[in-house]
Amino acid sequence: MDLEQRHFTPDMADILRGRRMRRNRRTEWSRRLVREHTLTVDDLIWPMFVTEGTATREPVPSMPGVDRLSVDEIGAAAEEAVALGIPAIALFPYTKADKRDPLGSEAANPDNLVCRACREIARRTPGLGIMTDVALDPYTSHGHDGLMVGDEIVNDATISALVAQAMVQVEAGCHIIAPSDMMDGRIGAIRAALDAAGHENVQIMAYAAKFASAFYGPFRDAVGASSALKGDKRTYQLDPLNALEALREVELDIAEAADMVMVKPGMPYLDIVWRVKERFGVPTFAYMVSGEYAMIEAAARNGWIDGEKAMLEAVGGFKRAGADGILTYHAPRIARRLAAG
To answer: Residue 210 catalytic?
Structure first.
């Protein structure tokens, strides 16, 4: 008696022979034919960190393989993005302590790092999408996304500062404004200001469901906010255990004319990505944040996982959950891997 006969009656064996799920998995060509979701380079946005200097590349210790780049190096990276077919990049500044103050004044400086980088990228790669972060945490001496009065992050005064920040970025050449601050009403205010200034075609990608996550640590190192941060951000970022509140936040941002919405972080919140896409059907993005990137890289460098496979599996999970695109520091590596087949 063979193994199959020991475990199944003849009738059950006949049924099993008729319904073999594994047939479609036997060969690579068949797996490709029946694959439900496909990852392409068009799904990628490459986040980059910009710093002062010339011909400067500063490694971020907590993000192996990621550097802060001077404006000229950002331009070169933008050219690499175009060569790889990546449709857009996202910019984040490393602001030194001497340019930080309680009001985040440097955010509205038309010659700040982000604005200079926008102009350089637009000059060297005019067909590449440029996305810029709107929040005050890279510029405030207290490390918060908004303005502080006493111990409180004040909402409406912050919005005025965010509008000013968005305007200088757009005037420098960015195409997508991405408010990550989680203040109430900021999407509508920024949209109104952009339209009034004749920037009706500038898109807004709202960080609509941004959670108060432990996975942001390496990013704060990369932008110099870790040592500056006083307290935490739980009064404005979402509670990690709240899903319905996240959906209400997304609904409000869409009502205020967000063109696209984002869930951040990514992997721990794939259920939110799925629910947002299912309920609203709008362009939905996920951010594979610094902590997620660092976990994969650290485990891979210790030989605990296959880093390349884990990287692709992670971003594939975002696609399966319904994301239209993914912000990931792995973007250039993924693009090269996809091009290689």
So the answer is: yes
* Burial class of residue 81 (count of CB atoms within 10 Å of its CB; 0-12, 13-18, 19+): buried
- Conformational region of residue 207, where left means phi above 0, alpha means psi within -120 to 50, and beta covers everything else: beta
Structure tokens belonging to residue 25: 């998995």
The structure tokens 């941060």 sit at: 229
For residues 333-337, average pLDDT = 97
99 catalytic? Reply is no
Question: Comparing 12-26, 208-222, 295-309, which segment has the lowest mean pLDDT?
Answer: 12-26
| Chain segment 28-61, per-residue pLDDT in tens | 999 999 999 999 999 999 999 999 999 999 999 9
Contact call for residues 57 and 75 (beta carbons, < 8 A)? no
Residues 6 or more apart in contact with residue 26 via CB below 8 angstroms: none
Catalytic residue among 99, 210, 277, 319: 210
Q: Confirm if 172 and 115 have CB atoms less than 8 A apart.
A: yes
* Catalytic residue from among 99, 264, 277, 319: 264
